[in-house]
Every structure is written in structure tokens, then in C-alpha cells.
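Propose amino acids for all 148 sites.
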């Protein structure tokens, strides 16, 4: 049975969750620079669990990723094991994080990603005026009333 839980309440334990994030993000050449040991970060990082196995993750951060712009919060570190891709589980994790964003009173969520087609297909909008020098990523945003 699939369930989404936050890092603090992961039945497999915080260490297993932290290890999964580190390995998953390093496999995909992500920069594992976020500190997931603070209370706030533990409350804002979620895992997809299937039959007592972590099969995906997605986080939420309030750090300003684009300096000089008021852009926050950010969906971060979306990852699914290969066998779980293509079944809308990524969207399930994102929707779970967006619910948290709404509960916190925000009306917009942001993401910086190389997976441009995925976010375009989910009706995210490219942020105008953001040009990543020597990077292949793009910033997208979604007004939360557009989530349907």
C-alpha cells in the first residue's frame, strides 16, 4: 500500500530516510547541499513508501534560490525509483507538498529543474527573466489556484 509520510514520521526511521535522499540525489547528480536535520526541514520533506520500502521523495524549502527575487517556497529534490515513474507518483508527491504550502498561507510554489517537459505537462509556467548561466535548468512556478 502506498503512503506519503514526512521524514520525521517515516516508519523506517530518520536515518533510512536521510540515507535514501542522499543516495537518490547523488545518483542524479543533484547538489545535496540542503540540511535535512533541522526540525523545519524534517517537517517539510516527504517520502513515498510502498510495502515498507522508500520509493520516492520530495521536499519543500524556504531558502531563496534566486537571489534578489522574492520567490519562496520551493519544491525540491523530487525523485522516484525507476519502477515507479510514469504512474503519476511524482505528481502525488508534489500535490502533497503543495497542500503544505497552502496550509502555510502561500499562493505560489516554485521549482528549479532540468525536467522541463514534466513540469510543462503539469501546467507549470516558466519564470520570465530567469536565465541559468552554464546550466540546463529552468525555474517554473505555479499559482496554487491553477493546481487542478
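Proposal:
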Amino acid at each position: 500500500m502506498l503512503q506519503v509520510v514526512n521524514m520525521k514520521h517515516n516508519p523506517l526511521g530518520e536515518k533510512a530516510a536521510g540515507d535514501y535522499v542522499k543516495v537518490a540525489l547523488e545518483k542524479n547528480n543533484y547538489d545535496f547541499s540542503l540540511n535535512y536535520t533541522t526540525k523545519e526541514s524534517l517537517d517539510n520533506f516527504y517520502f513515498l513508501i510502498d510495502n515498507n520500502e522508500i520509493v520516492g521523495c520530495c521536499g519543500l524549502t524556504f531558502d531563496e534560490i534566486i537571489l534578489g527575487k522574492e520567490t519562496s517556497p520551493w519544491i525540491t529534490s523530487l525523485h522516484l525509483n525507476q519502477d515507479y515513474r510514469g504512474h503519476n507518483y511524482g505528481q502525488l508527491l508534489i500535490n502533497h507538498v503543495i497542500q503544505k504550502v497552502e496550509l502555510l498561507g502561500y499562493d505560489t510554489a516554485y521549482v528549479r529543474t532540468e525536467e522541463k517537459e514534466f513540469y510543462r505537462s503539469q501546467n507549470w509556467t516558466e519564470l520570465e527573466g530567469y536565465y541559468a548561466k552554464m546550466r540546463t535548468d529552468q525555474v517554473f512556478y505555479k499559482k496554487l489556484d491553477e493546481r487542478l
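Strands lie at 2-6, 45-50, 53-61, 74-80, 108-113, 125-126, 138-143. The chain is about 25% helix and 30% strand.
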